[in-house]
């Protein structure tokens, strides 16, 4: 009679042990090295001009440096409207920087980055934006030297030209 009484506890113990053994086998640590990223994305990409920029109140030109799964972004904004205090407005032209990682899933480019200073060290105060730069782009077309993106937040197209090819050399994290 005593064995039957303890059987549910023993069964629970076996289930716990089995679960932990499965988790131990299934969850192996990932290597402490950055990802490879997408081969077609590797390089320095510039947006040489923005369509209809002379008719827009503000626009931003993009410069991407992509190496492995890392992305470095330079944003040059031109604005006819002052959104910032006068000391930051800089006659309507200013630069912002971001650093992070990217991923391509199907026809979408996902960028997760943090605004930085020009040296790509994290920015926690100052003019313009701080915090996260999270953007998603539709990859409308791609060739060996041209990448056409459409921002999924404001539907603006970004036509990037490859200025320099980069070879991914993965680094330890």
What does it look like?
- It comes from Pedobacter lithocola.
- This is Fumarate hydratase.
- With 173 residues, the chain is an alpha+beta fold.
- The chain has a single domain, classed as Lipocalin.
- Helices cover 17% and strands 42% of the residues.
- The chain is built from two helices and eight strands.
- Strands 1-2-3-4-5-6-7-8 form an eight-stranded antiparallel barrel.
- β7 and β8 form a beta hairpin.
- It is elongated, with a radius of gyration of 24 Å.
- 14% of the residues are buried.
At a glance:
The protein is 17% helix and 42% strand. The protein has 173 residues and is α+β, with helices and mostly antiparallel strands. It starts with a helix and ends in an 8-residue tail after the last strand.
* Unreliable stretches: none
First and last CA, distance = 58 Å
The global form is: elongated
What's the CATH C level? Mainly Beta
Judging by the overall fold, what is the CATH architecture? Beta Barrel
Strand portion: 35-45%
Summing up helix and strand content along with how strands pair, one would put the structural category as alpha+beta
The helix content is 10-25%
Strand element count: 8
Protein name: Fumarate hydratase
Organism: Pedobacter lithocola
């Amino acid at each position: 009679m005593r064995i039957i009484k303890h059987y549910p506890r023993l069964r629970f113990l076996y289930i716990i042990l089995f679960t932990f053994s499965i988790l131990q086998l299934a969850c192996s640590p990932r290597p402490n090295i950055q990802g490879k990223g997408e081969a077609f994305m590797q390089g320095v990409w510039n947006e040489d001009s923005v369509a209809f920029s002379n008719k827009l109140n503000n626009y931003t030109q993009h410069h991407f440096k992509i190496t492995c799964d890392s992305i470095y972004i330079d944003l040059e904004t031109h604005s006819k409207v002052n959104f910032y205090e006068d000391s930051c407005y800089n006659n309507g032209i200013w630069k912002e920087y971001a650093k992070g990682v990217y991923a391509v899933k199907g026809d979408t480019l996902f960028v997760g980055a943090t605004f930085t200073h020009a040296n790509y060290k994290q920015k926690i105060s100052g003019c313009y934006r701080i915090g996260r730069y999270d953007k998603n782009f539709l990859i409308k077309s791609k060739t060996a030297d041209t990448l056409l993106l459409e921002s999924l937040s404001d539907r603006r197209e970004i036509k990037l030209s490859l200025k320099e090819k980069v070879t991914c050399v993965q680094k330890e994290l």
